[in-house]
Amino acid sequence: MSAMDIVKAGLAAVEANDFKKLEGMLADDMVFAGPVPEPVGKHEFVGLQSLLVAAMPDWKFNAKDYKESGDTVTVNLQITGTHSGELSLPMPGMPKIPATGTKVSLPSEATTFTVKNGKITRLDVASTPGGGVPGILSQLGVPMPPM
């Protein structure tokens, strides 16, 4: 599989709520950086994604403009979903957020995946106003807890 094929399969695994498959596609030392206060590892990333998809079962990345260069794949992701389940984020001071039925649509976010030896080793999301978890919370009308 090419780096692009691996990235596409990883995004599809999240959208299909198949986190076992996703885990197998990530290097053990994988790093996720960008819309989180500090970079996190594989298990924290998978845990966060599973919580988001549990809260928004129709979660979609709406990926477009894929570009592959060696072991790097860049793509624009524009996350959408409907908050139809409880959102329980692993953030100090963040209460559980009961389903609101709110349709969430984040701005397009430039995303870079690094793939080595058939595994995603790094995922970097460019800081985008209104993006990431803060953007989701804002659209749900929930303030970010103090850091």
What labels would you give this structure?
single chain, 147 residues, alpha+beta, Nuclear Transport Factor 2, Chain: A, two-stranded antiparallel ribbon, 8 strands, globular
> N-to-C SSE series?
HHEEHEEEEEEH
Low-confidence stretches: none
Record field, number of beta strands: 8
Helix proportion range: 25-40%
CATH architectural arrangement: Roll
SSE layout:
Blueprint: H1 3-15, H2 19-25, E1 26-33, E2 40-41, H3 42-55, E3 64-69, E4 72-77, E5 80-82, E6 103-105, E7 109-116, E8 119-125, H4 132-140
Parallel strand pairs: 1-8
Antiparallel strand pairs: 1-2, 3-4, 4-7, 5-6, 7-8
Helix pairs in contact: 1-2
Give a structural overview.
With 147 residues, the protein is of the alpha+beta class. The chain has a single domain (3-140), classed as Roll (Nuclear Transport Factor 2, Chain: A). Helix content is 29%, strand content 29%. The chain contains four helices and eight strands, in the order ααββαββββββα. The chain has helices at residues 3-15, 19-25, 42-55, 132-140, and strands at 26-33, 40-41, 64-69, 72-77, 80-82, 103-105, 109-116, 119-125. The strands form two sheets. A six-stranded mixed β-sheet has the order 2-1-8-7-4-3. Strands 5-6 form a two-stranded antiparallel ribbon. A hairpin with a 6-residue loop joins strand 1 and strand 2. Helix 1 runs antiparallel to helix 2 (19-25). It is globular, with a radius of gyration of 15 Å. The termini are far apart. The model has no long low-confidence stretch (mean pLDDT 94).
